[in-house]
Amino acid sequence: MALLSCNNAAFAYDGRKVVSNLNFTVEPGDYLCIVGENGAGKSTLVKGLLGFIKPCEGSVTMGSGLKVNEIGYLPQQTDVQRDFPASVYEVVLSGCLNSLGMRPFYTKDHRERAEAMMDRLSITALKKSCYRELSGGQQRRALLARALCATRKLILLDEPTTGLDPLVTMEMYRLIKDINHHDGITVIMVSHDIPAAVRDGQHILHLSSNGPYWATAAEYRSSPLGRAFLGR
User: Checking phi first, is residue 3 left (phi over 0); if not, alpha (psi -120 to 50) or beta?
Assistant: First the structure.
């Protein structure tokens, strides 16, 4: 059963339809990269997949027991987020908020999961450090650990390497690929880095003014659209 699927879905922003005719599925263990020009509706689609907005046409359905509040999310960072005055541990632990339910406090399991995710991403030594004092790459690792605290099935990453230097960018891509391959976490990543998307992703969803194009990475690479954006 598909983990997530869009069926003739369309989403609007400020009352204007910005992306439509979405028909694609995400299977457990998939790695889907969403690419396309600015203004093509990538951010609006992200909000729709997270349940922040409802489709104005069609539907988004989830299977395999997945619930919207079980999607791990790494958003684009704003200046306010970069200056967040909390420890790394507090930031990572906050990924468990959606699973608190009616409980007012984090449980032992929540704290152990936060510890495990910091260890998984090699930031345990930064546990007591102030988040806003970290480098850009360290902050992204903390946010990725936070996203993993929220899910065991699916993470949604919105341009996770923006603003990072090339070496840190490559390490972030390696971490994401490792989480997908070895941890079995399904990945949906929005990216402007199309070469990296076709290198690491299994499927590509390209949004443009001409409508969406969904294909395997190999099919996209050899398509006229893919060749144009890859400079081939």
Answer: alpha
pLDDT of residue 177: 96
**How much is the mean pLDDT over the chain?**
91
* Maximal C-alpha separation, the chain: 55
pTM: 0.93
Confidence of residue 69 (pLDDT cuts 50, 70, 90): confident
In whole angstroms, what is the distance from residue 159 CA to residue 96 CA? 22
Packed helices 108-120 and 136-149: angle between N→C axes, nearest 10 degrees:
140
Q: Are 197 and 35 in contact (CB under 8 A)?
A: yes
Separation of alpha carbons 44 and 202, rounded Å: 22
**What residue ranges in 52-201 does DSSP mark as E strands?**
57-62, 71-74, 154-158, 186-190
d(CA 225, CA 207): 11
Q: Write down the pLDDT at residue 79.
A: 57
Q: Which residues contact 51 (CB under 8 A, 6 or more apart)?
A: 68
Which residues have a Cβ under 8 Å from the Cβ of 232 and sit 6 or more positions away?
226
